[in-house]
Design goal:
By secondary structure, the protein is α/β, with parallel strands linked by helices. Helices cover 33% and strands 22% of the residues. The strands form 2 sheets. It has a 7-stranded mixed beta sheet, with helices on both faces. It is globular, with a radius of gyration of 20 Å. The structure holds adenosine-5'-diphosphate, iron/sulfur cluster and magnesium ion (MG). The site of magnesium ion has 4 residues, from α1.
Length: 323
C-alpha cells in the first residue's frame, strides 16, 4: 500500500529551482534510501516533505501522505501531522534538542503533544522509549541534559522522540554522518530494528551508499534536485543504469573515473555539484557525464516500472554498468 506519494515537487528560490520536479513514493513499512552527493537537494527535499522549508522558498507540486494532501495545509494542521504520522531525525542532534531541557522531559513532551494522556502515563511511555533505544538505566538518562550525552546517545534520544507517537513514516537525514564509525553501525542497526518492529516506513537520506544499502529495500538516486534513478537495492548495486549512479558506485568502491582503482586517495566524480542556480538546462548531469550527447539538452523523464531511470542514453539493463 502506498503511504507517501510525491509528484512533480518544485522548490524555488528567487525564481530558480532547487528541487526540480521531484517524484517518489514510499510504501507502508518500506525502507527507502535517498542517496546523492552533498548539494544534491536531499535535505531540501526532506524539509519540503516535513513542511519546514526555510523562509522565502516557494513550493509547487503534490505531497500526499495516507491520502491527505499536505501542500497548502495550515501550519497548525501540518504540525499535527508532524510528529504524529511523520517524524524526522536530523543529522546533528544537538541542534534538534533543547540544550536547556532534560532529555526525559523532551521525550515526554513529544509523547504528550499528540496524545491526550496524563503526565504519569507519558512519563512511563518516555521511560519505555529510552529503554527501547538501548539505555540500560532509563530513569537516570532521563535526568540528563543533552550536553551530558555522547553523540550516539543524543541520536538515540532523537530516535526515541521520533518513535514517540508511532509515526507511519520516519525521515532520517544523515542520522549517523556525525558519529564515529563503530557508533554509526550501532545506531543504524538500532534504527533498522525499531522501524521493522514498529512497522513504520523509513526514508533514509545519506551521501553514503554503504549506509543506505545496508538498511534499505529500495534506493532513490538524487542529483540536481531530482530523482535520476530508482530501483530495488540489489539492482542499484549490480545493474545501475544512470551514468550518475554508475559514477557514485565507482567512487564508493574506490574506482576513479579512468577505471583504475585509486591507491591511497579518495576517488571522486569528475567536476563538482554546481550551485543550485548554476545547473545546466536539459539533463541536470550535463557537463559531468561521459555519455552526454546533443539530445541531453532536453530534460529526460523518469521511466515507469520497478527500475526507473531518467537518462537518454542509460547503461543497458543487462547489469554491471556496461554500455
Ligand atoms: N535557504 C536556501 N536558499 C537557497 N538555496 C539553498 C538554501 N538552503 C540550501 N540551499 C541550496 O540548495 C542546494 C541543495 O542543498 P541541500 O538540500 O542541503 O543538499 P544535500 O542535503 O543533498 O547536501 C544547495 O546548492 C544549497 O546551497
Ligand atoms: S541524459 Fe545525457 S547527460 Fe544526462 S545522464 Fe543521460 S547521457 Fe548523461
Ligand atoms: Mg543534507
Amino acid at each position: 500500500m502506498t503511504l507517501l506519494t510525491v509528484s512533480d515537487l518544485v522548490v524555488e528560490a528567487a525564481g530558480q529551482q532547487i528541487i526540480r520536479g521531484l517524484s517518489l513514493s514510499v510504501n507502508a513499512g518500506e525502507r527507502v534510501g535517498l542517496i546523492g552527493e552533498s548539494g544534491s537537494g536531499k535535505t531540501m527535499a526532506a524539509l519540503a516533505l516535513m513542511g519546514l522549508l526555510p523562509e522565502g522558498l516557494s513550493l509547487q507540486g503534490s505531497i500526499e501522505l495516507e491520502g491527505v494532501e499536505l501542500t497548502g495545509l495550515s501550519d497548525r494542521r501540518y504540525s499535527e501531522i508532524r510528529g504524529d504520522r511523520l517524524a524526522m531525525i536530523f543529522q546533528e542532534p544537538m541542534t534538534a534538542l533543547d540544550p536547556l531541557m532534560r532529555v526525559g522531559r523532551q521525550i515526554r513532551d513529544a509523547v504528550r503533544l499528540h496524545r491526550r494522556i496524563s503526565r504519569a502515563e507519558a512519563s512511563s511511555r518516555m521511560l519505555q522509549l529510552l529503554a527501547r533505544v538501548g539505555f540500560p538505566n532509563p530513569a537516570e538518562q532521563a535526568r540528563r541534559f543533552p550536553h551530558q550525552l555522547s553523540g550516539g546517545q543524543r541520536q538515540r534520544v532523537l530516535i526515541a522522540i521520533a518513535l514517540a507517537c508511532d509515526p507511519a513514516l520516519i525521515l532520517a537525514d544523515e542520522p549517523t554522518t556525525a558519529l564515529d564509525v563503530t557508533v554509526q553501525a550501532q545506531v543504524l542497526s538500532l534504527l533498522q530494528r525499531l522501524v521493522r518492529e514498529e512497522r513504520s516506513a523509513l526514508l533514509l537520506i545519506s551521501h553514503d551508499l554503504a549506509v543506505v544499502s545496508s538498511v534499505c529495500d529500495r534506493i532513490l538516486v538524487m542529483y540536481g534536485g531530482t530523482v535520476v534513478e530508482s530501483a530495488p537495492t540489489r539492482e542499484i548495486l549490480t545493474a545501475p543504469r544512470h551514468p550518475y549512479t554508475v559514477a557514485l558506485l565507482d567512487t564508493s568502491r574506490g574506482i576513479s573515473a579512468d577505471g583504475e582503482t585509486a591507491a591511497g586517495q579518495l576517488p571522486t566524480i569528475p567536476g563538482a555539484v554546481p550551485a543550485w542556480d548554476q545547473f545546466p538546462c536539459g539533463c541536470v548531469f550535463r557537463g559531468r557525464c561521459p555519455r552526454e550527447q546533443d539530445r541531453c539538452r532536453e530534460v529526460p523523464r523518469l521511466t515507469e516500472g520497478e527500475h526507473r531511470v531518467a537518462c537518454w542514453f542509460p547503461f543497458s539493463s543487462e547489469g554491471g554498468g556496461g554500455a
